[in-house]
C-alpha cells in the first residue's frame, strides 16, 4: 500500500517559488492500477518521483507498506528502490548495452550472481515478448519494443510496485494499446501495483481501476473509472472526458445509423479549400431525388484555408440515383468516401 | 627527384620520427589516465553532480582553466625546474615529456567532463530509480555511455600532442617539427622541410583514421 500524506513540493526557480505539489493525500492499494491524469504542469511528474524519492518532498509523509521511505538511510532507500520499478516516456535505456544487457543492469546493481542473472533475463524477455531480439541494441528497436525492454528492466528485481511516467506518450495509438495490454497482463500475473501518470484519457480509461485528476499541484477529483466518466465533478475532469467522448460519438452515431437504416449509405465528404464557399450540397440535393441528412460536420482551419469534412446519410432513390449523386459530387471536386 | 631526395639524411629522419612518436605517446598515455580521473572528479563535484562539492570543483576548475590558458611554449619554460627534477635534463625529447603531459592533462580532463555531461539525464535518473549507487552510476552507466565521445577525445588529444611536439623543439625537444624547422627551414633544405612535414601530416591522418574507426565501433546509437 502506498500512502501519501499531505505532501508538498516547492521548487525555487530564481526568485519565484513554484508549488508543484500542494498538499496531496492519496492511498493506493496493493494490486491496483492507479492513474493520475493532468495537463502538463499539473505536478503529476513530480508526484510520481516523490513515490520513489527521486524528488524529496518539502513536507508530508510517503508511506510504503507503512514505512516512511523519506526517513530511510541512503543504502536502505537504494534497496527499497530495487523493489519499485519505473518506466519512462523516453524509455531511458542505455544505448551502449544490448537488450539483454539493459535488462541485466538492475540485477547487477542488486548483486545477483551471473548464472541467476542470465536465467532471469531470459524469463523477462519472454514475459515482454522480445524473444530473438536479445542481442539487438536499443537503436535497432521500434518505440514499442524499447518500452518493452523498459518494462522488462523495471520488473527485473521482482518489484511490488511499477511506476509509469507517461509511458505511452511517445508511442503511436496501436503500440500504446499493445503496451497497455502488457501492463494489464503483468498486473494480473504478478499482482503488481501500477501507478501511472499520463495526459491521455484513453490510457486511464482503458486500464486504470481508480483515477486521480490533478490540477495546479492538487488532486481535484478521485474516483473509480466508471464514476469519473459517468459523473465528473471538476472542470478539468470534464474537459478530459470531452476529449475522449468526441472521438467515440462518431463511432456510436455510425453504428446507430446502420441499425436504423440498414440499406442506406453513409458518405464522408471532404471539401478542399477553393470549393468551401460554394453551395455544392444544396445543388446536388436539388438535382436528385435522394434524402440527405447530415450526421456530423466540421470545418478545420489549416494554413491553406478552411477544410470541411462532412458525414452524410443518404436514403431513398435507386442505385442509379445514388451513383449520379456521387458522380456529381466528384465532378465538383469533392472527395467522396463510402463510410462503412 | 632523386637529387631532391638525396639532400635528406634518412637516418636523422628516422630518429626524428621515433622522437616525435615518443613525445606523443608517453604524454598521451599518462594524460589519458590522469585526465580521465580529473575529468571524473570535475563531473561528479560540479553543480547538480553525483557528489556535488562546490569547494573541490571550484579549485580544480580554476586550475584546469589556468593551465589551459598558459601558452604551451611559455609553460615549457616555466616548468624547467620541475623537468630537471623529474628527468634530470632539460634537453632532448625526454625533457619535453613533462611539459607536454602537464599541458595534455587539463585539456583531456575538460574533454572528459564535456563527454560525461552529454550522457542523458533520463538514463541517469533511470539508474537511480533502479537503486544504483553513485559509484555504479559513474562506472556502469555514465562511463560506457560516454565512450564514443571519449574515444574521439583521445584522438583529438593525440593530434594536438603531435602539433605541440613541433614546438617542443624550442627547448631542444628535437623530433620531426624541430627537424623541419632547424634543418629544413633555417638551412633552406626544402627536401627535409617537405618530407618532415609530410610525415607529420601522415601521422595525424593515421591517428584520426584509427580514432574514427574505434569511435564508430563503440558507438551503438
Please characterize this protein's 3D structure.
The complex is a heterodimer of chains A (340) and B (221). Chain A has 340 residues and is of the alpha/beta class. Chain A folds into 2 domains: 2-246, Rossmann fold (3-Layer(aba) Sandwich); 261-338, Alpha-Beta Plaits (2-Layer Sandwich), CATH 3.30.70. Helices cover 39% and strands 30% of the residues of chain A. Chain A contains 11 helices and 14 strands. In chain A, strands 6-7-8-3-9-10 form a 6-stranded mixed sheet, with helices on both faces. In chain A, a hairpin with a 2-residue loop joins strand 4 and strand 5. The two termini of chain A are 47 Å apart. With 221 residues, chain B is mainly alpha-helical. Chain B has helices at residues 2-5, 10-45, 54-69, 72-78, 80-87, 93-117, 121-129, 134-145, 147-168, 176-185, 190-218. The longest helix of chain B is centred in the N-terminal third of the chain and has 36 residues, at 10-45. The termini of chain B are far apart. The interface between A and B is medium-sized, with 30 and 21 residues.
Question: What is this entry, summarized?
Answer:
The complex is a heterodimer of chains A (340) and B (221). With 340 residues, chain A is an alpha/beta fold. Chain A contains 11 helices and 14 strands.
Q: Which helices and strands appear, and what pairs or packs with what?
A:
The complex is a heterodimer of chains A (340) and B (221).
Chain A: E1 2-13, E2 16-28, E3 33-37, H1 44-51, E4 59-64, E5 67-68, H2 74-82, E6 84-88, H3 99-109, H4 114-127, H5 143-155, E7 161-165, H6 173-190, E8 193-198, H7 201-207, E9 210-215, E10 218-224, H8 225-230, H9 235-260, E11 265-271, H10 280-287, E12 291-302, E13 305-315, H11 319-331, E14 335-338
Parallel strand pairs in A: 3-8, 3-9, 6-7, 7-8
Antiparallel strand pairs in A: 1-2, 1-4, 4-5, 9-10, 11-13, 11-14, 12-13
Chain B: H1 2-5, H2 10-45, H3 54-69, H4 72-78, H5 80-87, H6 93-117, H7 121-129, H8 134-145, H9 147-168, H10 176-185, H11 190-218
Helix pairs in contact in B: 2-3, 2-6, 2-9, 2-10, 3-6, 5-6, 6-9, 7-8, 9-11, 10-11
Amino acid at each position: 500500500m502506498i500512502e501519501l500524506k499531505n505532501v508538498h513540493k516547492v521548487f525555487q526557480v530564481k526568485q519565484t517559488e513554484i508549488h508543484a505539489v500542494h498538499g496531496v493525500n492519496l492511498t493506493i492499494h496493493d494490486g491496483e492500477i492507479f492513474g493520475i491524469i493532468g495537463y502538463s504542469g499539473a505536478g503529476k511528474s513530480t508526484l510520481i518521483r516523490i513515490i520513489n524519492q527521486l524528488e524529496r518532498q518539502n513536507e508530508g509523509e510517503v508511506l510504503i507498506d507503512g514505512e516512511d521511505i523519506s526517513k530511510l538511510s541512503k543504502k536502505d532507500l537504494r534497496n527499497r528502490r530495487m523493489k519499485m520499478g519505473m518506466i519512462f516516456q523516453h524509455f531511458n535505456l542505455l544505448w551502449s548495452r544490448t537488450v539483454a544487457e539493459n535488462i541485466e543492469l538492475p540485477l547487477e546493481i542488486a548483486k545477483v550472481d551471473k548464472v541467476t542473472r542470465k536465467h532471469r533475463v531470459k524469463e523477462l524477455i519472454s514475459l515482454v515478448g522480445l524473444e530473438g531480439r536479445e542481442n539487438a541494441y536499443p537503436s535497432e528497436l521500434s518505440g514499442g519494443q524499447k518500452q518493452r525492454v523498459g518494462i522488462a528492466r523495471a520488473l527485473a528485481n521482482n518489484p511490488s510496485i511499477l511506476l509509469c511516467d507517461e509511458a505511452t506518450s511517445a508511442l503511436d495509438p496501436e503500440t500504446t494499446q499493445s503496451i497497455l495490454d502488457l501492463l494489464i497482463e503483468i498486473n494480473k500475473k504478478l499482482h503488481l501495483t501500477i501507478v501511472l501518470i499520463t495526459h491521455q484519457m484513453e490510457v486511464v480509461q482503458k486500464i486504470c481501476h481508480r483515477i486521480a485528476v490533478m490540477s495546479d499541484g492538487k488532486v481535484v477529483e478521485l474516483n473509480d473509472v466508471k464514476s469519473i466518466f459517468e459523473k465528473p465533478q471538476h472542470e478539468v475532469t470534464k474537459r478530459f472526458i470531452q476529449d475522449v467522448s468526441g472521438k467515440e460519438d462518431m463511432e456510436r452515431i455510425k453504428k446507430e445509423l446502420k441499425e436504423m437504416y440498414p440499406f442506406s449509405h453513409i458518405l464522408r465528404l471532404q471539401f478542399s479549400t477553393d470549393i468551401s464557399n460554394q453551395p455544392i450540397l444544396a445543388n446536388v440535393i436539388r438535382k436528385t431525388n435522394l434524402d440527405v441528412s447530415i450526421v456530423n460536420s466540421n470545418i478545420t482551419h489549416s494554413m491553406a484555408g478552411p477544410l470541411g469534412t462532412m458525414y452524410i446519410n443518404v436514403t431513398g432513390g435507386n442505385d442509379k440515383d445514388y451513383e449520379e449523386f456521387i458522380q456529381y459530387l466528384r465532378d465538383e471536386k469533392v472527395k467522396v468516401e463510402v463510410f462503412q | 627527384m632523386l637529387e631532391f631526395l638525396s639532400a635528406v639524411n634518412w637516418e636523422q629522419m628516422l630518429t626524428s620520427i621515433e622522437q616525435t612518436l615518443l613525445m606523443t605517446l608517453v604524454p598521451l598515455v599518462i594524460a589519458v589516465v590522469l585526465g580521465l580521473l580529473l575529468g571524473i572528479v570535475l563531473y561528479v563535484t560540479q553543480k547538480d553532480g553525483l557528489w556535488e562539492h562546490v569547494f573541490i570543483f571550484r579549485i580544480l576548475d580554476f586550475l584546469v582553466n589556468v593551465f589551459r590558458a598558459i601558452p604551451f611554449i611559455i609553460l615549457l619554460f616555466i616548468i624547467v625546474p620541475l623537468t630537471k627534477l623529474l628527468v634530470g635534463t632539460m634537453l632532448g625529447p625526454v625533457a619535453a615529456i613533462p611539459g607536454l603531459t602537464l599541458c595534455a592533462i587539463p585539456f583531456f580532463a575538460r574533454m572528459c567532463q564535456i563527454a560525461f555531461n552529454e550522457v542523458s539525464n533520463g538514463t541517469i535518473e533511470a539508474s537511480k530509480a533502479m537503486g544504483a549507487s553513485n559509484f555504479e552510476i559513474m562506472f556502469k552507466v555514465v562511463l560506457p555511455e560516454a565512450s564514443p565521445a571519449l574515444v574521439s577525445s583521445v584522438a583529438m588529444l593525440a593530434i594536438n600532442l603531435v602539433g605541440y611536439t613541433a614546438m617542443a623543439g624550442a627547448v631542444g625537444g628535437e623530433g620531426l617539427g624541430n627537424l623541419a624547422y632547424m634543418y629544413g627551414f633555417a638551412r633552406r633544405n626544402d627536401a627535409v622541410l617537405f618530407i618532415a612535414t609530410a610525415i607529420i601530416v601522415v601521422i595525424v591522418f593515421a591517428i584520426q583514421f584509427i580514432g574514427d574507426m574505434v569511435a564508430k565501433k563503440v558507438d551503438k546509437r
